[in-house]
Automatic annotation (TrEMBL):
Function noted in UniProt: Sigma factors are initiation factors that promote the attachment of RNA polymerase to specific initiation sites and are then released. This sigma factor controls the expression of flagella-related genes.
Protein name (database record): RNA polymerase sigma factor FliA
Motif (Interaction with polymerase core subunit RpoC): 45-48
Region (Sigma-70 factor domain-4) location: 188-236
Chain segments carrying region Sigma-70 factor domain-2: 18-90
Organism: Dyella nitratireducens
DNA-binding segment(s): 210-229
InterPro entries associated with the record: RNA_pol_sigma-70_dom (IPR014284), RNA_pol_sigma70 (IPR000943), RNA_pol_sigma70_r2 (IPR007627), RNA_pol_sigma70_r3 (IPR007624), RNA_pol_sigma70_r4 (IPR007630), RNA_pol_sigma_FliA_WhiG (IPR012845), RNA_pol_sigma_r2 (IPR013325), RNA_pol_sigma_r3/r4-like (IPR013324)
Length: 244
Protein backbone atom coordinates (compact mmCIF):
# COMPACT_ATOMS: atom_id res chain seq x y z
CA UNK A 1 0.00 0.00 0.00
CA UNK A 2 1.54 3.32 -1.05
CA UNK A 3 1.28 6.57 0.91
CA UNK A 4 -1.65 7.93 -1.15
CA UNK A 5 -3.77 4.78 -0.87
CA UNK A 6 -2.96 4.54 2.83
CA UNK A 7 -4.12 8.12 3.36
CA UNK A 8 -7.37 7.46 1.49
CA UNK A 9 -7.97 4.33 3.56
CA UNK A 10 -7.46 6.35 6.75
CA UNK A 11 -9.88 8.98 5.49
CA UNK A 12 -12.52 6.32 4.81
CA UNK A 13 -12.06 4.86 8.29
CA UNK A 14 -12.39 8.31 9.89
CA UNK A 15 -15.54 8.98 7.85
CA UNK A 16 -17.04 5.64 8.91
CA UNK A 17 -16.38 6.48 12.56
CA UNK A 18 -18.05 9.88 12.17
CA UNK A 19 -21.11 8.30 10.58
CA UNK A 20 -21.47 5.66 13.30
CA UNK A 21 -21.00 8.20 16.08
CA UNK A 22 -23.48 10.73 14.68
CA UNK A 23 -26.16 8.39 13.29
CA UNK A 24 -28.52 9.27 16.22
CA UNK A 25 -28.41 12.88 15.02
CA UNK A 26 -30.27 11.81 11.86
CA UNK A 27 -33.13 10.37 13.91
CA UNK A 28 -33.32 13.44 16.16
CA UNK A 29 -33.51 15.86 13.23
CA UNK A 30 -36.02 13.68 11.39
CA UNK A 31 -38.43 13.55 14.33
CA UNK A 32 -38.02 17.27 14.94
CA UNK A 33 -39.06 17.96 11.35
CA UNK A 34 -41.95 15.51 11.69
CA UNK A 35 -43.34 17.76 14.40
CA UNK A 36 -44.56 20.13 11.66
CA UNK A 37 -45.38 17.61 8.95
CA UNK A 38 -48.54 15.56 8.40
CA UNK A 39 -48.75 11.81 9.11
CA UNK A 40 -48.61 11.13 5.36
CA UNK A 41 -44.89 11.94 5.40
CA UNK A 42 -42.83 8.81 6.10
CA UNK A 43 -40.19 9.42 8.75
CA UNK A 44 -38.23 6.53 7.25
CA UNK A 45 -37.86 8.44 3.99
CA UNK A 46 -36.56 11.45 5.92
CA UNK A 47 -34.06 9.33 7.83
CA UNK A 48 -32.85 7.68 4.64
CA UNK A 49 -32.25 11.10 3.05
CA UNK A 50 -30.63 12.27 6.27
CA UNK A 51 -28.19 9.36 6.29
CA UNK A 52 -27.10 10.32 2.79
CA UNK A 53 -26.54 13.85 4.07
CA UNK A 54 -24.51 12.49 6.99
CA UNK A 55 -22.37 10.36 4.67
CA UNK A 56 -21.66 13.38 2.47
CA UNK A 57 -20.81 15.45 5.53
CA UNK A 58 -18.37 12.80 6.76
CA UNK A 59 -16.67 12.65 3.37
CA UNK A 60 -16.38 16.42 2.95
CA UNK A 61 -15.62 17.59 6.47
CA UNK A 62 -12.18 19.05 7.15
CA UNK A 63 -10.76 19.99 10.53
CA UNK A 64 -9.98 23.53 9.37
CA UNK A 65 -13.71 24.40 9.36
CA UNK A 66 -14.85 26.88 11.98
CA UNK A 67 -17.86 24.75 12.91
CA UNK A 68 -17.72 21.41 14.70
CA UNK A 69 -18.57 18.27 12.76
CA UNK A 70 -21.90 17.94 14.58
CA UNK A 71 -22.92 21.46 13.52
CA UNK A 72 -21.73 20.88 9.96
CA UNK A 73 -23.41 17.47 9.77
CA UNK A 74 -26.65 18.88 11.18
CA UNK A 75 -26.79 21.40 8.33
CA UNK A 76 -26.13 18.71 5.73
CA UNK A 77 -28.61 16.26 7.25
CA UNK A 78 -31.38 18.83 7.53
CA UNK A 79 -30.67 20.06 4.02
CA UNK A 80 -30.88 16.54 2.58
CA UNK A 81 -34.21 15.95 4.31
CA UNK A 82 -35.63 19.25 3.08
CA UNK A 83 -34.50 18.45 -0.45
CA UNK A 84 -36.39 15.17 -0.20
CA UNK A 85 -39.49 16.97 1.03
CA UNK A 86 -39.31 19.50 -1.80
CA UNK A 87 -38.84 16.71 -4.32
CA UNK A 88 -42.04 15.03 -3.14
CA UNK A 89 -44.13 18.09 -2.29
CA UNK A 90 -47.43 16.85 -0.87
CA UNK A 91 -48.94 20.24 -0.08
CA UNK A 92 -52.10 21.06 -2.06
CA UNK A 93 -51.93 24.33 -3.98
CA UNK A 94 -55.07 25.49 -2.19
CA UNK A 95 -53.16 25.44 1.11
CA UNK A 96 -50.44 27.74 -0.23
CA UNK A 97 -53.07 30.03 -1.74
CA UNK A 98 -55.02 30.41 1.50
CA UNK A 99 -51.91 31.17 3.52
CA UNK A 100 -50.88 33.79 0.94
CA UNK A 101 -54.32 35.38 1.24
CA UNK A 102 -54.16 35.53 5.03
CA UNK A 103 -50.63 36.96 4.92
CA UNK A 104 -51.65 39.61 2.39
CA UNK A 105 -54.65 40.75 4.45
CA UNK A 106 -52.45 40.74 7.56
CA UNK A 107 -49.95 42.97 5.75
CA UNK A 108 -52.69 45.36 4.62
CA UNK A 109 -54.13 45.71 8.13
CA UNK A 110 -50.73 46.25 9.73
CA UNK A 111 -49.82 48.87 7.13
CA UNK A 112 -53.11 50.67 7.81
CA UNK A 113 -52.99 50.52 11.60
CA UNK A 114 -49.26 50.39 12.36
CA UNK A 115 -49.99 47.63 14.88
CA UNK A 116 -50.26 43.84 14.99
CA UNK A 117 -53.16 42.71 12.83
CA UNK A 118 -56.19 41.75 14.90
CA UNK A 119 -57.30 38.17 14.24
CA UNK A 120 -60.98 39.12 14.21
CA UNK A 121 -60.36 41.80 11.57
CA UNK A 122 -58.39 39.38 9.36
CA UNK A 123 -61.21 36.83 9.55
CA UNK A 124 -63.81 39.51 8.85
CA UNK A 125 -62.08 40.77 5.69
CA UNK A 126 -61.58 37.24 4.39
CA UNK A 127 -65.08 36.08 5.37
CA UNK A 128 -63.59 33.20 7.37
CA UNK A 129 -64.95 31.48 10.44
CA UNK A 130 -62.67 30.96 13.43
CA UNK A 131 -62.47 27.27 12.54
CA UNK A 132 -61.41 28.04 8.96
CA UNK A 133 -58.85 30.59 10.12
CA UNK A 134 -57.29 28.23 12.66
CA UNK A 135 -57.08 25.54 9.99
CA UNK A 136 -55.06 27.93 7.81
CA UNK A 137 -52.69 28.56 10.72
CA UNK A 138 -52.30 24.81 11.25
CA UNK A 139 -51.62 24.35 7.53
CA UNK A 140 -49.06 27.17 7.65
CA UNK A 141 -47.15 25.19 10.27
CA UNK A 142 -47.45 21.84 8.51
CA UNK A 143 -46.74 22.96 4.98
CA UNK A 144 -43.39 24.17 3.72
CA UNK A 145 -44.45 27.80 3.60
CA UNK A 146 -41.48 29.30 5.37
CA UNK A 147 -39.84 30.76 2.27
CA UNK A 148 -39.94 34.51 2.53
CA UNK A 149 -37.69 35.06 -0.46
CA UNK A 150 -38.33 32.36 -3.05
CA UNK A 151 -40.17 33.48 -6.21
CA UNK A 152 -43.86 32.81 -5.77
CA UNK A 153 -45.03 31.18 -8.98
CA UNK A 154 -48.42 30.28 -7.60
CA UNK A 155 -47.58 26.59 -7.79
CA UNK A 156 -46.78 26.33 -4.12
CA UNK A 157 -43.16 25.24 -4.52
CA UNK A 158 -41.48 26.98 -1.65
CA UNK A 159 -38.34 26.27 0.31
CA UNK A 160 -37.59 26.96 3.96
CA UNK A 161 -36.30 30.41 4.84
CA UNK A 162 -35.93 29.44 8.47
CA UNK A 163 -33.82 26.43 7.58
CA UNK A 164 -30.11 26.63 8.24
CA UNK A 165 -28.20 27.51 5.07
CA UNK A 166 -24.91 25.87 4.19
CA UNK A 167 -22.82 28.96 3.46
CA UNK A 168 -20.04 26.84 1.95
CA UNK A 169 -22.31 26.16 -1.03
CA UNK A 170 -22.99 29.85 -1.65
CA UNK A 171 -21.05 32.28 -3.80
CA UNK A 172 -19.90 35.66 -2.38
CA UNK A 173 -22.98 37.52 -3.62
CA UNK A 174 -25.36 34.80 -2.38
CA UNK A 175 -23.60 34.74 1.00
CA UNK A 176 -23.95 38.52 1.31
CA UNK A 177 -27.64 38.39 0.42
CA UNK A 178 -28.23 35.49 2.80
CA UNK A 179 -26.53 37.42 5.62
CA UNK A 180 -28.75 40.43 4.95
CA UNK A 181 -31.82 38.18 4.85
CA UNK A 182 -30.86 36.60 8.16
CA UNK A 183 -30.52 40.03 9.75
CA UNK A 184 -33.86 41.18 8.32
CA UNK A 185 -35.54 37.95 9.46
CA UNK A 186 -34.12 38.29 12.98
CA UNK A 187 -35.36 41.89 13.09
CA UNK A 188 -38.82 40.82 11.89
CA UNK A 189 -39.01 38.06 14.50
CA UNK A 190 -38.15 40.68 17.11
CA UNK A 191 -41.30 42.62 16.16
CA UNK A 192 -43.64 39.67 16.73
CA UNK A 193 -45.93 39.57 19.76
CA UNK A 194 -44.11 38.17 22.79
CA UNK A 195 -45.75 34.74 22.80
CA UNK A 196 -45.10 34.23 19.09
CA UNK A 197 -41.44 35.21 19.61
CA UNK A 198 -41.17 32.67 22.42
CA UNK A 199 -42.64 29.86 20.33
CA UNK A 200 -40.27 30.65 17.45
CA UNK A 201 -37.29 30.66 19.82
CA UNK A 202 -38.23 27.39 21.50
CA UNK A 203 -38.94 25.68 18.18
CA UNK A 204 -36.08 26.90 16.00
CA UNK A 205 -33.33 27.69 18.52
CA UNK A 206 -34.02 25.20 21.32
CA UNK A 207 -35.34 22.61 18.84
CA UNK A 208 -38.27 21.69 21.07
CA UNK A 209 -41.27 20.01 19.44
CA UNK A 210 -44.81 21.38 19.64
CA UNK A 211 -45.80 19.08 22.52
CA UNK A 212 -42.81 20.17 24.60
CA UNK A 213 -43.52 23.84 23.89
CA UNK A 214 -47.13 23.30 24.95
CA UNK A 215 -45.92 21.98 28.31
CA UNK A 216 -43.74 25.08 28.77
CA UNK A 217 -46.59 27.45 27.91
CA UNK A 218 -49.30 25.47 29.65
CA UNK A 219 -51.41 25.13 26.49
CA UNK A 220 -52.38 22.31 24.16
CA UNK A 221 -50.22 21.14 21.28
CA UNK A 222 -52.87 22.33 18.82
CA UNK A 223 -52.76 25.81 20.37
CA UNK A 224 -48.97 25.92 19.97
CA UNK A 225 -49.45 24.92 16.34
CA UNK A 226 -51.80 27.88 15.87
CA UNK A 227 -49.41 30.33 17.55
CA UNK A 228 -46.57 29.02 15.38
CA UNK A 229 -48.71 29.34 12.26
CA UNK A 230 -49.73 32.88 13.22
CA UNK A 231 -46.08 33.82 13.62
CA UNK A 232 -45.22 32.39 10.20
CA UNK A 233 -48.10 34.23 8.54
CA UNK A 234 -47.11 37.47 10.23
CA UNK A 235 -43.47 37.01 9.17
CA UNK A 236 -44.55 36.31 5.61
CA UNK A 237 -46.53 39.55 5.64
CA UNK A 238 -43.69 41.60 7.13
CA UNK A 239 -40.96 40.12 4.93
CA UNK A 240 -42.79 40.82 1.69
CA UNK A 241 -40.01 43.10 0.41
CA UNK A 242 -37.65 40.10 0.33
CA UNK A 243 -39.81 38.04 -2.03
CA UNK A 244 -38.50 37.63 -5.56
Amino acid sequence: MNVASGYLQLQREDADQLVRKHAPLVRRIAYHLMGRLPPSVDVGDLMQAGMIGLLEAARNFTTDRAASFETYAGIRIRGAMLDELRRTDWTPRSVHRKVREVAEVTRQIENETGADADTAEVMKRLGMTAEEYHQVLTDATSARLLSLTAPDDGEGGEAGALDVVDHDSLGPQDSFEQENLSEALAEAIGTLPEREQLVMSLYYEQEMNLKEIGMVLGVTESRVCQIHGQALVRLRARMGDWRG
